[in-house]
């Protein structure tokens, strides 16, 4: 006799698949597939594939087991049992590759859509066009500049006769001479030679003087307020070593360096005076001036 005849109620059939267990647990809790998706953050199509035991549409067996365990935790099922059942089912399923899977933001990174590719291609073409225009414009400007330069060179010989004024060579720079540093106010300074040997170190008072040794090897100076020092070469005043806005360091104060500074100042002054007068001094006037300057220099250099 069967169970119905004996009055016994047959026991419910045990689910054969992991998907059946998950579906039963979800329905027992009154949850929808969307509720499970919100709890697990797994795409709905993957959850539906788990319930249907359609593992061939999932990315891989690892994803299948992971999604199933997340589903089980969300509905209160035994995730270890579900995971083992999924592994067993995967062993008997030949996985097929889906022909097409739409791009989803929640899925792992995939190939971007055709629209994104078209936009990227358009941007690349625009950049190439701009580069071509810039390069062509630059070549055009370069050609125009070359033509102008050629014209200028052709016109130079016609202007040559006008440049007949004599050029006065600068006076030779003395190799020796007495450089004197005099303080107009309290000022700290250090004078040293090329071997870093200190020649003077201290604070000078107003009126103090220091004669840089003539035999010093490339003497240099560090001074906090260069505008507080008066520099002379053989008694001739030299432009200040600095403006006083900041300290100076490693400035040469040998006779050759100071003479070059003095010569540069004289050349600048002569050029300024000539420009203001609007005429070139005659050779005789230059000779007279040079003679007078030389006499004055010899007189000032005499002890």
Topology overview:
Blueprint: H1 3-6, H2 18-28, H3 33-40, H4 44-51, H5 61-75, H6 79-91, H7 114-159, E1 179-183, E2 187-192, E3 198-204, E4 209-212, E5 220-223, E6 229-233, E7 236-238, E8 248-252, H8 255-277, H9 283-301
Which descriptors would you attach to this protein?
single chain, 303 residues, 434 Repressor (Amino-terminal Domain), 4-stranded antiparallel sheet, 9 helices, 13% strand, rod-shaped
How would you portray this structure in words?
With 303 residues, the chain is an alpha+beta fold. Among the domains are: 12-91, 434 Repressor (Amino-terminal Domain); 179-272, no CATH class. Helices cover 49% and strands 13% of the residues. The protein has helices at residues 3-6, 18-28, 33-40, 44-51, 61-75, 79-91, 114-159, 255-277, 283-301; strands at 179-183, 187-192, 198-204, 209-212, 220-223, 229-233, 236-238, 248-252. It has a four-stranded antiparallel sheet with strand order 4-1-6-7, covered by helices on one side. The chain is rod-shaped.
């Amino acid at each position: 006799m069967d169970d119905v005849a004996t009055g016994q109620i047959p026991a419910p059939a045990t689910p054969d698949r992991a998907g059946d267990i998950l579906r039963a647990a979800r329905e027992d809790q009154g949850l929808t597939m969307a509720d499970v998706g919100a709890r697990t953050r797994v795409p709905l199509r993957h959850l539906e594939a788990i319930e249907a035991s359609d593992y061939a549409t999932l990315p891989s067996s690892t994803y299948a087991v992971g999604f199933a365990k997340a589903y089980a935790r969300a509905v209160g099922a035994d995730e270890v049992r579900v995971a083992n059942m999924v592994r067993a089912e995967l062993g008997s399923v030949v996985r097929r590759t889906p022909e097409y899977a739409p791009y989803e933001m929640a899925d792992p990174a995939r190939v971007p859509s055709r629209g994104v590719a078209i936009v990227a291609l358009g941007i690349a073409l625009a950049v190439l066009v701009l580069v071509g225009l810039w390069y062509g414009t630059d070549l055009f400007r370069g050609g125009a500049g070359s033509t102008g330069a050629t014209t200028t060179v052709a016109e130079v010989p016609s202007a040559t006769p006008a440049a007949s004024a004599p050029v006065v060579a600068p006076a030779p720079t003395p190799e020796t001479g007495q450089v004197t540093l005099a303080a107009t106010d309290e000022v700290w300074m250090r004078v040293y030679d090329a071997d870093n040997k200190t020649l003077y170190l201290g604070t000078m008072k107003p009126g103090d003087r220091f004669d840089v040794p003539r035999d010093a090897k490339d003497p240099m100076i560090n001074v906090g307020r260069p505008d507080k020092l008066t520099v002379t070469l053989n008694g001739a005043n030299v432009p200040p070593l600095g403006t006083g806005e900041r300290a100076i360091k490693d400035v040469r104060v040998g006779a050759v360096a100071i003479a070059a500074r003095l010569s540069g100042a004289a050349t600048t002054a002569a050029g300024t005076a000539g420009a203001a007068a609007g005429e070139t001094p005659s050779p005789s006037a230059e000779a007279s001036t040079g003679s007078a300057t030389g006499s004055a220099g010899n007189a000032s250099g005499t002890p």
